[in-house]
Amino acid sequence: MNGPFFIETLARNGDVLHRHRVAALPITIGRGYNNDFILDDAHTAATHAVVEAAEDGGLVIRDLGSQNGIVAHGRRQSVVPIDGSTVVRLGHTRLRVRDAAFPVEPEVTDTTMHAWEGGIPALAGLALIAMFVGVTETLADTGPFQAIRYLLVIASGIGIGMVWSGFWALANRLFGGHARLGRHLFILGTGLVSIGAWKALSGVLAYAWSAEVFTRYGNHVVMLILVTMIYHHLRTIKPHKPRAFISSCAIFLALGSGLILMRNYENAGRLRDELYMSLILPPEVRQSPDHSVDDFMGDAAKLKAAADEARKSSKFKKDDDGEE
Predict the structure, then answer these.
(1) pLDDT averaged over every residue in the chain
(2) Residue 70 and residue 45: Cα distance in Å, rounded?
(3) Secondary element (H or E) of residue 260
(4) 20 to 30 A Cα–Cα from 11, which one of 129, 154, 250, 269?
(5) What are the phi and psi torsion angles at 133 (to 5°)?
(6) Residue 267 CA to chain centroid, in angstroms?
(7) Collapsing DSSP states into helix, strand and coil, what is residue 142?
């Protein structure tokens, strides 16, 4: 085979960390400075391996008596036939060798949305975060209006949002090359507003049509929104790995929902979030048909009978002082 040849060091996920051009064979590899390709790896020998031509015209990599050898396809080997797709491990370093004629993969469609970056999504995200925090505080506030309290709450919410988005921006800078803080702020703001909208909509639906399932198991939808936020954070960092992120987020969703169910059962002996719907709205919102007084009294009688039966079946022991 004719040169030049390119030795690539790879990350564990297969991404290329570095490429080194070598004009011709053989190619010696090791920690020593007299090698054609120098490894910065304490687990490799001074002269660890050599890449040379095989009898069939291909390439092989041969161990030169190193302590840790060459690992390929999960096992140690002294000689490994290689092509442009073969990955070998020398010490803790993953390598592959390609010649200049090796075909590259076709161009991937750009899905990073470079136009949706910078100040516009950052301001939109901050506005959405402030709206979510402000509306939540308004709905929970039972005292007189105090502007300073609202300003402090909104400022605190924006600060927490900046920390969350800053974490993802740092990961984006390390693993994706660009911080993209604005887009991460927008993802967070959109997710928070979606959670707030779901809380309001689920309460209205539950009250209007007596569909308590929306409030009894509504936290699972909140978990779904949170997982969706994390998925979009990850896609912003690595836009070309959607399947791996979908699988990871699906596992996270299953674990989160399971923890919610276990927490409910441990705290209250039931799987649902609340025993009765706690939200009360104006009567005009009700859309389900009214029940008669007789129906109500019948249901109450059934509850009383069940409570009496439970009381009779329970056993109490009194001590000598007559206390239960």
Answers:
(1) 89
(2) 11
(3) helix 242-268
(4) 250
(5) -65, -45
(6) 27
(7) coil
Residue type, 196: G
Contact 129, 185 (CB under 8 A): yes
Query: In the numeric block, which tokens belong to residue 42?
Result: 């304490």
pTM for this model (two decimals): 0.65
The predicted pLDDT at position 284 comes to: 83
Q: Which of 109-123, 133-147, 220-234, 275-289 has the lowest mean pLDDT?
A: 109-123
Q: Contact, 121 vs 115, CB < 8 A?
A: no
Distances 182 to 83, 122, 166 between C-alpha atoms, Å: 43, 4, 10
Whole-number Å distance between alpha carbons of 204 and 323 = 47
Token pair in block for residue 157: 């919410």
What string of DSSP letters covers 118-141? SHHHHHHHHHHHHHHHHHHHHHH-
pLDDT confidence tier of residue 113, bands split at 50, 70 and 90? low
Q: What is the pLDDT of residues 252-268, one digit of tens each?
A: 999 999 999 999 999 88
Residues 154, 131: Cα–Cα separation, whole Å? 8
Spatial CB neighbours of 270, under 8 Å, sequence gap ≥ 6: 264
Read off the tokens for 204: 């209205």
Q: Any idea which residue has 């779901």 for tokens?
A: 198
Question: What are the backbone dihedrals phi and psi of residue 186, each rounded to the nearest 5 degrees, phi first?
Answer: -65, -40
By C-alpha distance, which of 279, 272, 148 is closest to 204? 279
Find, among 232, 235, 137, 238, the residue nearest to 188 by Cα.
Answer: 232
Confidence of residue 217 (pLDDT cuts 50, 70, 90): very high
**CB contact burial 105-126 (16+ within 10 A = b; e otherwise):** eeeeeeeeeeeebeeebbebbb
Q: What are the strands of the beta sheet with 93-99, ordered from one edge?
A: 16-22, 5-10, 93-99, 88-90, 70-72, 75-77
The amino acid present at 21, given as its one-letter code, is R
Q: Do residues 76 and 90 make contact, with C-beta atoms less than 8 angstroms apart?
A: no
**Contact of 160 with 166, CB cutoff 8 Å:** no
Give per-residue pLDDT as tens, 63-89: 999 999 999 999 999 999 999 999 999
Residue 233 CA to its chain's centroid (Å): 8
